[in-house]
Structures are given as C-alpha cells and as structure tokens.
Design a protein that fits this description.
The chain is about 40% helix and about 20% strand. It is of the alpha/beta class. The chain binds pantoate (PAF). Its main location: cytoplasm.
Length: about 280
C-alpha cells in the first residue's frame, strides 16, 4: 500500500493503472476510519482491480467552525487500519492542494433539490461543500467506481444526481450502514459521545425502527403524525431532534400514502454531537 501525499504522486499511479486498463474504485473519506468505512473499502475491493481511499477533512462542508475543529483526526491509526485491508493507495491531500486559491471565490457545485432540505436545512452550505469536493476528488482520482455509505443517504443521492447531471463517468455505489450491537450507526462522531450518551444514542435507530414498523406492519399512512411521535420518543430518550422525516427513497421528495419505496431519515443532537441515521421502508 502506498500513500500519495500530493497530486503528482497520485497522478503517476493513476496514469499507470489507466494504461493497463485496470478498474479503479475510490472511497472518499474524512478519516477517523471505523468498520463502516472498512465495509466501503471491502466493497471497492470486490469490484475493482485497484482501490484508492482519500482522507481529507473538507473545511468547505463545515458550516460550524467548532465542529470542524472537533472533528477527530487520526491519520496514523487510519493508515494502520487500511494497511490491514487490501487497498493500493491512500491519498492524503492538504487543504492547500485541494483549494490552492482559497475557498472564498471558489467555483462551487450546487445540486438543487437536495442541498436545502433535511440535513441541508440545518447545515447551510454543507452539501455545496460536499458536492464541490467530491467533484474535485473525482477529477483527481478519475475512478470508474465510487463507494459511499447509506448512512449519509442524502449525500449518496446528491452525488448520484451530480454524476448524472454533469455526465461524469463514475458508477456510484451505496453500501448499507454498519451498526454497533446496540443498533447505533457507526460514525466518526460516536467517539465524541460520553458513556452516558452512548447508552442514549441507540434510541435514534430504535425510533426509526418503530416508525418503519408502524408503516409496514400497522398500515399507518399519517406520516406527519408518525414524525411527531418519533420526535417525542427522541426527546423522551434525552435527544434533541432536529428532524424526523419520511421521504420518497428515489428523490427525497415528501412521501405520500401512494409511494412504495420510502426512506425514514432523522437527525438529533446529543449534547454537542449531531447524530444522523435513516432506514428503508418498503411497501411494495
Ligand atoms: O462522507 C464523508 O466522509 C464526506 O462527506 C466526503 C464524501 C468524504 C466528502 O468530504
């Protein structure tokens, strides 16, 4: 496994693989890798000849300076974890390499319809930052396949739209969320939770499951009632809900009783930590 710390090292590798017509899979990350990320790398391994993982904490997607400062950075541990997997290259650019002219007057990629709802509402500019950095990374790595976790379902759908709208030739693949035994979705931010919060946090997933059960098993079609009940359950468990929403899985538009493929999505705060999760709900 090699580490490319700059663009020219990355380009040299990519060029030689391209010349040999090898299939390249790419897993973009912000580091602090956990089992969820490792399952993305495993998926990449199954699908491609060469696997590239990037580690870059992207300042452009943080609307909260404190969140950016607190974001866990564990490069040595990440490299160690990846060295135990079958990954050919880690790309670890600096901020200056990704944004050589700064971010103030940067050309940005905006994905309408996905950027201002759900997580986009509470984090203005976040998805523009994600779309912009992912586009830049795609141009640098030139992958055939890119792998993203379903835990960030809105991000996954936004990137699929971006790729379709801009005619990018990368195949975007989603991988199911990895969970702890408690049901808590694996996330880099979980390391910021206290012992007490780690006991409270799984109620996010439990609430999503209860909502799914009410729709799939009990035939409940009053989605706004269900979302209200879910928020109340979260509050009772000590979380501060930001949103609970039931959406059409394909485009994240508001769902109605005729839609068959739904996604239930939620975000909630536990102290200073913002947790998100989502599950599929299938009525077909
Ligand atoms: O999901 C993440 O870790 C980030 O949003 C991503 C896709 C690496 C872009 O910075």
């Amino acid at each position: 496994m090699a580490i490319a710390e700059n663009l020219s090292a990355l380009k040299t590798r990519i060029k030689s693989w391209r010349q040999q017509n090898e299939v390249i899979a790419f897993v973009p990350t912000m580091g602090n890798l956990h089992e969820g990320h490792l399952s993305l790398v495993q998926k990449a391994r199954e699908l491609a000849d060469r696997v590239v993982v990037s580690i870059f904490v992207n300042p452009l997607q943080f609307n909260d300076q404190q969140d950016l400062t607190n974001y866990p950075r564990t490069l040595n541990d990440d490299v160690q974890l990846l060295s135990e997997l079958d990954c050919e290259l880690i790309f670890t650019p600096t901020e200056e390499m990704i944004y050589p002219n700064g971010m103030a007057s940067l050309t940005k990629v905006i994905v309408p319809g996905f950027d201002d709802k759900l997580c986009g509402k509470g984090r203005p500019g976040h998805f523009d930052g994600v779309a912009t950095v992912v586009t830049k990374l795609f141009n640098m790595v030139q992958p055939d396949i890119a792998i993203f976790g379903e835990k960030d379902y809105q991000q996954l759908m936004l990137i699929k739209k971006l790729v379709a709208d801009l005619n990018l030739t990368v195949d975007v693949i989603g991988v199911p969320t990895r969970r702890q035994d408690s049901g808590l979705a694996m996330s880099s931010r979980n390391t910021l939770l206290t012992q007490k919060q780690l006991v409270q946090a799984p109620s996010l997933y439990k609430t999503l499951l209860a909502t799914k059960h009410a729709i799939e098993e009990q035939g409940e079609t009053d989605f706004s009632l269900l979302c209200g009940q879910a928020k109340q359950q979260l509050q009772e468990a000590g979380l501060e809900p930001e949103y609970v929403d039931i959406r059409r899985a394909e485009d994240l538009e508001l769902a109605n009783a005729n839609d068959k493929q739904l996604r239930i999505l939620a975000a909630a705060r536990l102290g200073s930590v913002r947790l998100i999760d989502n599950i599929a709900c299938d009525l077909a």
